[in-house]
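just leaving the lab so this will be short. below you get a single protein, a line of residues and a line of whole numbers that encode the local backbone shape. id like you to explain what the token line says about the fold, in plain words if possible. thanks a lot i owe you, the record is right below:

…
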Amino acid sequence: MVLLPCPLPFESKKESSDSDQSHSKHLSSDSSSSLSSRSFSSLYSQPSLLSVPSLSISSCQFEHLSNTYHHCAATLTGHSSYIFCLSLAGNYLYSGSSNGEILAWDRNPSIQDNYSTQNIVSQSCSAVKSIVILGDKLFSAHQDHRIRVWKIDNGTPNKKYKCIATLPTLNDRCMKLFWTRNYVQVRRHKKCTWVHHVDTVSALALSKDGSLLYSSSWDRSFKVWRTSDFKCIESVWNAHDDAINSIVLSNNGHVYTGSADKKIKVWKKQQDNNHTLLATLEKHKSAVNALALSEDGSVLYSGACDRSIVVWEKESSSARQMVVSGALRGHKKSILCLAVVSDLVCSGSADKTVRIWKRGFGKSYSCLAVFEGHSGPVKCLTAALDTSVKDDSGSGNSYLLYSGSLDCYCYVKVWKFWVPNYL
């Protein structure tokens, strides 16, 4: 296939010092954003973390890694702009793009080169940055500072979902208007009520019981919303010194936020339902773009512009704080996204590749596979066990991984890979 030249939508990169670049923001923002001049900086790689020991072993130490079978099962065509986020729920894969479209796909597409049976389920005027699903509701985070709630209806083909709420809701906004104490300073000469995000909403996460929705933003805050009535019940302003790019929740209720200020912060919910800072994890030397937790919550993975995936672990089951275990190295440019499935870690990078990592003996990790096929930076990933494959012998597991990128073809790629149990 001939790749047509298609420049990425970078804003002109001004000459600046290394320190200016390190405080840059993750991906694009509209021209009215206070931080728009720092858009797409996460695609520019910075030196790797030489001070952190490497946990990834060389391929020559694992000759049997060739037994990990993988291939591109399908290419999903239908988007007309860059893919910013992916989410799996039930039998469907949802993808959000820079032009505000959300598409729904069969999570098990036919094995063919191009698969275009898609359904545009919602459309807005602003880029979709994150998607989470709760029952029959789809929550989407947008570049226009809002969160939208859609009523899922997959019973009728080609029917668009109904937007049932926009957060903050009108009721929430009106109830806060008339009290001075409800206003916070957002810029030198501007105030707004604390229920508003005032910059791009970058990520969403749901609590374990689904009762709370967490949103992070480039305005340096994160907020907590009740999913029952969509009311904003808490806002942590100035949670970081720069844009928050990622937010994840552990099963014990701890909240992890990763920011362009190079820091990861751990927040704990108190008895009064407010969150307080528990710890600050500092090791990255550049903007933190992505976070992911192991399924039991004992290991945190963080990806940044320094091309490294830092592995954080608790020293013991009773330990309160996480410490650096080491780093996974192999990508040649910034880490933009992370996903965890079973005991595997998947990483997408501005180097246009996806890597699959598996923990081995001790604390070492091996790179099982490198997926190449995108012509632009890999912006989003999601993965799951492939339930369509039955292995009665128990010799291994089959997985499906979905990747979206910032390439001019606007593809979502579906990868199948099989991992034997002895690895």
Q: What stands out?
A: Residues 1-39, 59-66 have pLDDT under 50 and may be disordered. The longest strand covers residues 396-405. Helices lie at 18-22, 170-176. The two ends are 34 Å apart (CA to CA).
